[in-house]
Structures are given as C-alpha cells and as structure tokens.
Amino acid sequence: MKELRVGMVGYGFMGRTHSNAYKRLTDFFPVQHKPVLKAVCARDAEKAKAFAENWGYERIETNWKKLVEADDIDLIDIGSPNNTHKAIALAAAANGKMIVCEKPLAMSVKEAEEMVKAVEKAKVPNMVWFNYRRVPSIALAKQLVDEGRIGKAFHYRATYLQDWTISEDLPQGGPGLWRLDSKVAGSGVTGDLLAHSIDTAMWLNGAITRVVAKTATFIKQRTHVVSGKTESVKIDDACMFLAEFANGSMGTFESTRYARGRKNFNTFELNGADGSVYFDLEEPEYLQYFEYKNPGTGKKIDSHVTGWRKIHTTNSEHPYMNRYWVPGTCIGYEHTFLNALADFVMGIESGNPTQPDFRNALQTQRVCDAVLESARKGSWVKTGVKL
Fold this sequence. Notes:
alpha/beta, Dihydrodipicolinate Reductase, domain 2, six-stranded parallel beta sheet
C-alpha cells in the first residue's frame, strides 16, 4: 500500500472532520493509498501541538510555507480561513503537491481563476470539500435525475438556515469568529452556506445563468476580537435570491444565520414534469421522491397509488452504503468527508479525477460573486457559469 502523506493547514472544525476521514479511509474503502498524518500547521504552536497529539500528526509547523515545501508531504489540505486559500494553493501547486481545499474556493472569482490556472499548469490533483454531494440521499437524488426520473425541470428551491449569530453581544474576528469578519471571510452566508446550496443545485440541475438578490446585515456593528474596538459588520447575515437555470427552470435560494431554532437546516426540492425530489439535512438518511411517470415505460403512474415516497437510503444499493453497515442503520455527517476523500483517492488511482475540482468550484464562485453584485446593484446579473 502506498503512503499518502498529508499536511494539514488549520486545526479547527474542518481540520477535525478531514483528519477523521484520513484516519478511517482504508478501514472502509479498498484504496491503494493509506493516508499518513505527517504535519499540521497553525500559528498557535500550543494549540497545534495539542491537535497533533490528539489526532496523531507526527509534527507541527507554524509557517505554512515550510509545509508546502516539505519533501515528506504529498497532499496539502487547506482548512484555514478563506483569505488564506489562494496563497497556500498557489504555493502548493508550485511545489507539485496535491491540494484539497475547503469551500468556498476563494474570496472572489479573480482569486479562484488564479488558483485554477495554477493547479492546471502544475497538473496536480485537486478537490474542493463540497461534502454534501457525498450524503447518500443527495447522491441518490443525482442518480434519479441522471436516470431521467424527474424529466424536464421546472423549479428548484433551496434553504440553508442557522441561528448562531443572533446575539448582539457576539463579537467578530479572531480564530473562532472569523466568519463574521469580511476581511477574512470575504462574505457571510453567501460564501459560507449558499456556496453549498449553489454547488448542489448546479450538480443536480445544471448551470445557473443569472440571479437577482437581496442581502441584509441585521447587526451593523460588533466588537472586533483582535482590535478590541467596535467595528462595522460588512458580511451578509442573510441572503435571498432568484435564479434562472440554463435548462429553463426557475430557482429560489434563501440563507440566514438569524432563523431562531435552526442549527443547520439545509433543504432542497427539485420539481420536474415526471417527478420531484426533496431533501432535508436534519433527516439525512431519507430522500423524498414523487414519481409521476415510470421512466421505463413513459406511462403515468396510476393515480390511486401516487404519492411521495420517503426512501430510507441505507441499503447496499444506495450510494456509498455498501461500504458501511447493514440496511436500516445510518451513517453520519463525518462520513460525508470520508466518502469525498475516498472519491478523491480513487480518482487519483484510476486517472479519472473526482468532482468538484477547482475548475468546477470556480463556477460556484461565479454565482456567489454574481449574487453579491446583484444585491449591491439591485438588478439581475449574469453569472458567466460554464459547466
């Protein structure tokens, strides 16, 4: 078995989910590469050391430049804040490293284009961690679409709701709250939450061609953790937008961190001429499916037996589930990263790169930027997406 020597940048939430995937990969998937946790990099040496000891990394670094130049590293995992993605990715590509990067890919389309150019010039394998594609239920929805069971698409609607920033006393910035600092995050819910919704939507329903959006920032000022001063909040707390897809269907998207009681409420519904699918991340082991026409015969289903099916996606026939437990038993959030990693590694081994890679994630970045531009202008904006 070959070694896949990993250098992790960041020790936060994503650092934990990714590290768990590396440690469990060969337990569940018959790949030829075994991840080896070589080094974790962070500015705080003490916290990095504690993380390394807990997860089993061999050493720590406090300078990411040393990490990307190290001879004993094959793969750079970028799990650090958004404003660091470009510099690390460019340097990693220049040093011939494989790269996996947290979403959103970059702070802007301009940055993302530079990153795509760098990895394609270096010809290094790359992936962006849009992990929700690897939820078995969502992967099944993609299978149903590809099988023609939905037919001509008419509507796509998505919501992604949380409530963790409602308190006026919550500060911004620093290691824990950088997502509220526009200089570090780039945007608020658009880049953080809607990027997931957009990636899923275009994976299932094709390119989004233009959007019209409205954003809101409910609390205008917060204390900054680093400066200690009261500073303006420049990220979007909430965003709603309408979308047009290349296939002629219409889309609605809503995201906020001010939906009291919602912790990670992520849903989508796709309605077509022949059927519909609906997914809710709070019940990830289910996909709801409405069948109007039989795709094999093209005939309408008898009206007295039509209705929504709630499919429990735990059979071995369902995506990824043949690697886990017996039917009726569920996998969790952490397995979506494990599934993504397995697809990435199998892509390396087969020569068929997995998606989404940097170029694919650039298209999601185009939509995010168009959404923010539309919110500023108050008008429709073309995305320029090319899938």
